[in-house]
Design goal:
The strands form seven sheets. Strands 2-1-10-9-11-12-13-14-17 form a nine-stranded mixed β-sheet, with helices on both faces. The longest helix is centred in the N-terminal third of the chain and has 17 residues. It has 601 residues and is of the alpha/beta class. The radius of gyration is 24 Å and the shape is globular. α6 packs across α7.
Length: 601
């Protein structure tokens, strides 16, 4: 019916006016919260006015950087860019206090940015940085909260097509430098329909969340999907959520939220931080969809949260584990509505050899030698294949391979990277079927369910066995209540010593070493000596995976490197370890690893 996203949004504006809205909850002094509401009709008026200002600058089909704190001003700016046929580039505000603008500058250079849209509070600091960085002559800031108002009545919709570029979604850079994914109007329409069908969304849907707007889950799932459905959405900032996770549940209760979405760590934070007293007065029974995605979904999290919040209306069938990525606009697979999660046990040794062999137990804890996995659900209409990444032959059911995706949600490629776009977005199977997107993720399908096992780049190969980093991290975390998030990676003593001339002499024993940088809570250690805790984690991991060489480094919270959206960066954590940039509270290192670390300057 629609050929562009703007036409759909404007139809919803005409149909619902300000009866549908975005509501932002801000934290005020004294732990008070303030409600700010922007109706669809007012959003449309402001977006048309901003579109006229952008058109006057001749920015059609040019990339413009959006640097905003969480709030309603970002939504106005993004929709204004859509209306003006300007390519929006959402990005996190740089750390202004610490002067960290490196990622922002890389995006400016990569996307050839000439204009930054921001709010009044951040205009001055960004201007000062641009001047200090020598960019002020070609990059300017526009404060969208002030200035001469353009007449929204003067705006006329430009010509759109499904191929018109809507925005660039810069990837988080968890395994590589950020890249700008080119998302078109056609991609937004296709993925909007994918999500609508999976969640059975309607104008009566009420979303509640806190995921940042520059993350694909936040931008598409939390901001653009309400515009697609014509429904209400209530949100707060990630910082406010982290400070007080109970607010998330209070908002669901107050606004009778029907859907919420977050990465697994958000649910774990709620489990750890929401007190029994804070549960009083909560009512989560209005929820029908609780999406969990963007990182590995833990069965233990699903089970614990269902049990903990069951007395206040949470039902296990609300869970909707899902899988997606920026390169597919967002959603690829999700559990069917009301079916709850599919959790199965598989033979760990067989998985290490790229075969999924079910070992489902009747009940209780999984038997030794098994790996418990949560299904990421099923595709709606997208074509999802499991392909051998080397031979490009399609794998049979139960065979582990790379996840390939084809369909209208798959983006156009990476901005300014034709060769890489062809390699990633233009893959063909050995039977010459395609083009497919190569996701870089490993998984398998059984009984129609997609199980994601890890990233290709996060594989640790020991004695010819493929072990996924997050499996090791799970085992380390389960070893003791003091263990928090951890990052596991492999180190080859011979290779890494050769690559780093500044490293000390390493004992080359011809083995790939597994290193775990494990954040801990010293309070939860309950007096246990930290060297004993390191030894305990080492022993548990070595025994669980039959690993001959495991090294453990215990560190404080915040040590493991993360992206701006909270996703773990194992590669950067590995580099920091080798450079001696990680301060150990205690460690238990193999001799072949000890000499590889530089001595901090």
């Amino acid at each position: 019916m629609y050929s562009d996203f703007v036409s759909l949004v404007r139809d919803n504006v005409r149909t619902y006016g300000d009866d549908r809205s975005f509501t932002f909850i801000s934290e005020e002094p004294g732990r008070k919260y303030k409600e700010h509401t922007l109706g669809f009709a007012e959003l449309d008026r402001r977006a048309r006015a901003l579109a006229r200002r952008l058109e006057a600058r001749g920015l059609r089909d040019r990339a413009v950087l959006l640097l905003y704190p969480e709030g309603l001003e970002f939504i106005t700016a993004f929709v204004g860019c859509l209306y003006a046929r300007v390519i929006a580039v959402p990005a996190p505000l740089p750390d202004l206090d610490a002067g960290r603008f490196g990622r922002t500058r890389r995006i400016i250079e990569d996307a050839d940015i000439a204009l930054i849209l921001t709010d009044t509070a951040h205009r001055g600091t960004l201007d000062a940085w641009l001047k200090a960085a020598g960019l002020r002559s070609r990059v300017h800031c526009l404060d969208t909260q002030i200035g001469k108002d353009a007449d929204p009545g003067d705006w006329a919709p430009p010509a759109f097509s499904p191929d018109t570029l809507a925005f660039l979604q810069y990837t988080s850079g968890s395994t590589s430098d950020p890249k700008g994914v080119m998302v078109s109007h056609g991609n937004l329409l296709c993925n909007g329909e994918e999500i609508k069908r999976r969640i059975e969304g309607s104008p009566d849907t009420v979303g509640v969340g806190w995921v940042p707007h520059y993350h694909d889950m936040g931008l598409v799932g939390q901001f653009l999907q309400p515009l697609y459905l014509g429904c209400k959405y209530v949100f707060t900032s990630p910082i406010t959520f982290i400070k007080r996770p109970a607010l998330w549940l209070e908002l669901i209760t107050r606004y009778r939220g029907t859907i919420t979405v977050a990465p697994n760590f958000g649910y774990e934070l709620a489990l750890r931080r929401v007190t029994d007293r804070q549960l009083e007065g909560l009512d989560l029974s209005s929820l029908t969809v609780v999406k969990n995605g963007a990182e590995p979904v833990r069965a233990a999290t699903l089970e614990a949260l269902s049990e903990r919040f069951g007395p206040v209306g949470f039902r296990p069938e609300m869970w909707m584990p899902c899988y997606g990525m920026a390169e597919t606009t967002l959603l690829v697979t999700g559990a069917p509505l009301g079916g709850g999660p599919v959790v199965r046990d598989f033979d760990a040794e067989a998985l290490a050899k790229d075969a999924a062999v079910p070992r489902d137990a009747p009940s209780g804890a999984p038997p030794p030698g098994t790996r418990r996995l949560v299904s990421s659900g099923r595709p709606v209409t997208l074509d999802v294949r499991i392909v051998d990444p080397e031979t490009r032959a399609e794998r049979p059911e139960g065979g582990v391979g790379e996840i390939w995706v084809r369909g209208g949600s798959v983006a156009r490629g990476y901005w300014g990277s034709l060769e890489e776009s062809r390699a990633v977005f233009g893959a063909r199977t050995s039977a010459d079927e395609g083009p497919y997107l190569r996701t870089g993720d490993l998984g398998f399908r059984i009984d129609g369910e997609l199980f994601v096992t890890g990233r290709i780049k996060d594989l640790i190969i020991v004695n010819g066995r493929n072990i996924h980093a997050h499996d090791i991290e799970e085992a380390a975390r389960a070893a003791h209540p003091a263990a928090l998030i951890g990052a596991a990676f492999g180190i080859d003593a011979a290779i890494d010593a050769d690559l780093d001339a500044d490293a000390g002499a390493a004992e080359d024993d011809g083995r790939e070493h597994v290193v775990i940088v494990q954040e801990i809570s010293t309070r939860a250690a309950a007096g246990m000596p930290l060297d004993e805790l390191a030894a305990l984690i080492k022993a548990r991991v070595a025994r669980a995976f039959e690993l001959p060489a495991v090294s453990v480094v215990l560190a404080a919270r915040g040590t493991v490197r993360r992206t701006t959206s909270g996703k773990m960066q194992r590669r950067l954590t590995r580099e920091a370890f080798l450079k001696g940039e990680i301060t150990a509270l205690a460690d238990d290192l193999e001799p072949g690893v000890t000499g590889l670390r530089r001595t901090p300057a």
